[in-house]
Amino acid sequence: MDIIVCIKRVPETAEADLVIDASGKAIETDGLVFSINEWDNYAVEAAIQLKEAQGGTITVISVGPEENNEVLRRALAMGADEAIRLTDPAFEGSDAYAMAKVLAAAIRDLPHDLILTGVQADDDGFGAVGVVLAQMLGLPYAALVNAIDLEGEILTVHRELEGGLEEVDTLKLPALLTIQTGINEPRYVSIMGIRRVAKKEIVVKGAGDLGLSSDEVGLKGSLSRTEELFFPPVGEGAEILEGTLDERAEALVKILKERGGIA
To answer: Cβ neighbours of residue 84 under 8 Å, at least 6 residues apart?
Structure first.
């Protein structure tokens, strides 16, 4: 079985004080710690577990500069076999559609029975690259997958739905799945493990190698673009209602009526 996993290097922003850069369209990344996208880490682990059960090979692919080698080598240390980095100034500014186009061009000529991506990325949260990629490659797909069972060429997957519900689907290989967090427990990667793959080749390809022109990717090839990035305005503080229970209930109803919450 040939499995391809698309992974992304993202900044860790949960506990960072973010600053919008001079362009007004991105955040300052100097001083931020970068790591593999959380959803993608689960996708790599899912691929490794399938490989251990079924045999085969795993190729990890990432779009970005040389720094992306860090997450590619991490995936290699986890158990992936090959790594490809897609790098070109023409890729800068690509939205989810253009990014899927880059990945599709790289994957189309590679052996692939199964393609895995994370559901979404920590930095933009679009959740669109995986499903757009499946459409471009003409593959059946399932999104928000939190369980996988493979028998022969038939995948049975569980999909997470709203309200605590799950949906069970079957797909025939080749197929694409977007992986939800919690599907597994990603294995620990030691420093020694990363050192063991430090000299393993990472294949680098640009737009020309993929047969893409600059008009097909980047801002020119995108269907959307960021116009402005800003912090949400700070609202007023909470209003504490006082008095008896009946008085507070009456005050609350009055506030809701005044603000259009109830008729």
So the answer is: 59, 60, 61, 62, 106, 202, 203, 204, 205
